[in-house]
């Protein structure tokens, strides 16, 4: 059975997020490690982290899926901004050590005209510099919709980053809206897309999913999330996703345009399909 949750506010700390997740019927959740549109991060509270981890164990939570800042672009052509993004990545991974065994997901970045090969190399270099041997967190590259100069719109691009980093601590978070908008027909052939993922990357690298419907048609390369069952993927697809044997143990994070009551309703809806 998959773990299901949503993005939660980290304003009141990790333990409060765990309690909120439990209250809305979630057994995993996502949170931003810092301001999603900036660089500010709250100080780590070790006692709060210990309480959160204890509550997660008590309530049988799955892994959490922390999310890096949207503004962190590891392959921008601006060298100063690229160095700053790499420093933010390294600091985020150091902070995640206070929540061992969890996932840290981020958008690979946009090469902004430098070319895909250059972008892939720059992302890999930043990851190699940030990842310490035996680090207690797995970094997840998010599948993207292929908008503009985004890196990660094709499975082969993520595989190239993984190969260049050469670490077992790098995995993938598959976003249903992104891959559908990016040209992978998960609605018409979910098994075929998962087989393609396995061939190119390996299903052992698939650690988590972002579960979002899409406001746009197939292969639109747009990336606009919609509530579950209200977009072009449709409720029947999510029923199939919830019961797919290859995804049974994965944390699935809702990023739909909702507030807490909406997320609670979507979590209940998805659980009713299992």
Describe this structure in words.
- By secondary structure, the protein is of the alpha/beta class.
- The chain has a single domain (3-271), classed as Divalent-metal-dependent TIM barrel enzymes (TIM Barrel), CATH 3.20.20.150.
- 38% of the residues lie in helices and 15% in strands.
- The chain is built from nine helices and ten strands.
- The chain has helices spanning 14-23, 46-58, 79-96, 116-130, 155-165, 176-181, 190-200, 235-242, 260-271; strands at 3-6, 30-32, 65-67, 102-106, 137-142, 170-175, 206-211, 213-214, 225-226, 251-254.
- It has an eight-stranded parallel beta sheet with strand order 1-10-7-6-5-4-3-2. It has a two-stranded antiparallel ribbon with strand order 8-9.
- α5 links the parallel β5 (137-142) and β6 (170-175).
- α1 (14-23) runs parallel beside α2, α3 (79-96) packs across α4 (116-130) and α4 packs across α5 (155-165).
- The mean pLDDT is 96.
Key structural traits:
274 residues, alpha/beta, TIM Barrel, eight-stranded parallel sheet, two-stranded antiparallel sheet, 9 helices
What's the topology here?
Blueprint: E1 3-6, H1 14-23, E2 30-32, H2 46-58, E3 65-67, H3 79-96, E4 102-106, H4 116-130, E5 137-142, H5 155-165, E6 170-175, H6 176-181, H7 190-200, E7 206-211, E8 213-214, E9 225-226, H8 235-242, E10 251-254, H9 260-271
Parallel strand pairs: 1-10, 2-3, 3-4, 4-5, 5-6, 6-7, 7-10
Antiparallel strand pairs: 8-9
